[in-house]
């Protein structure tokens, strides 16, 4: 540590500092390749004297008095800068974890000795220049003194590495004994590991025991590799051959009408890198991805590709770089998202008698959306573009799972879930909608219009024909119901105050704890006014534009007003809350000029969006 006398001087400091060291601005530095963490979730080893992994440099700073602009005199002011980078591994699964290893392809991440001139002043997050490095290593291993038992909750392991760029994928190794390793390939961050930053690396385990890493792109969390499981998430084996043969012949595969998987060319080693190929019948079970994950819908693929600039730009950003797995020349690929798209090829249907094509040149991924009785939507990667197509359900394609559970309502409609910045989990679309909205006026995403407090008895169904029109499935009646369950599914109109479909009124039909007519899937309910208000606060702007721009992609389905006609379709959105407002009920409303909470008669038909209990 530098010192001085009574004359002006420049003061530097660094940590870790060895007591008794001579004054110097060039000091020794090291970063161990073997690092030890006492127990899971504990980061003491990063800065403790016993570990001394974190190295900080303090440089002089000029500060001014809070009361004026004069430089503060006779004081020493320092800016502290981290020298290294921290990785936080968040690992979920089962079994025991003792070791976490990171192997990088090029620049060293650890070294046994070297020096640093602490008078350097690099730009924020830019690495310091180190000199005379010895014992450089492209591998670091963290050993847990007390082994961790993995669960569905994240086990955190911390590693300190030297910042820098890496040309190619990194490999994360997990082991319980240091001998047998499970390895996961993951792209390094775009621009390399930056100094002073902490990177969170999430690793989960599928139902077959395969660990996989994840990547967040926009509001979506995706697997960072193709699915490899041989089991449905309930633990049942996915068929991959007839009883007389371990694998399907080409003609057997082409004739399947039930769920199945295969390895490309029936060679299991191909699946280690590229994942397995599944027909759409396996996708359609809803049990292919790990619990809490699902096969993306066609709309979710669109969300990903649109976020990255459309199909002409998204391909470059999603595709793995280099020619280790893609055929030469693989120009233009950046993989800046960390998605690491791989060319797993496909297995054909009866068109080509179940033959295999295009490994190392093209990638193909299923969506969960059916196109017709014979075909389903998919995305495929060719010539740096992500295309949308429909293939026969017998095709064997790769699968990428996206975070979020899938749930079904009482009418058999299937939904995915979205977690917003408020921390709440919502259905990804309106009740009754066939898809996630692609615009605020996407009428396929309008869904049903419910009278407040009624169950899904059919009164709510609208056959939408355009962004501004639709036909009600049920006629109207002016006869009010005296019970929670009307005698028929007719839309009950009532223009007389308080405009309720029920007489006498009942306030607890959609309440959180006592609601008897909750139309939401099991485990979900109608949101409160406070929950809608919290979501609206995150919109920018607070109009129909912000409503659709939010992760929930709200639409302007309008209303079936309390006298039975459709109004404001294509211009306004109205969503019921469970909150009572006197003899009325509270709702969220928005248009092109604003968004707010309001009160309306319960005979009005509004959209419903469910929230998790």
Structural class: mainly beta
Work out the helicity level.
under 10%
Total domains: 3
Straight-line distance between termini: 56 Å
- Helix count equals 8
Biggest sheet architecture: 5 strands, mixed
What does this structure look like?
There is one protein chain. The chain folds into three domains: about 160 residues, no CATH class; about 150 residues, no CATH class; about 200 residues, no CATH class. The longest helix is centred in the middle third of the chain and has 10 residues. Helix content is about 10%, strand content about 30%. The protein is globular and about 90 Å long. It has a five-stranded mixed sheet. The N terminus is likely disordered. By secondary structure, it is mostly beta strands. The protein has eight helices and 41 strands.
Properties at a glance:
single chain; 613 residues; mainly beta; 5-stranded mixed sheet; 8 helices; 8% helix; disordered N terminus
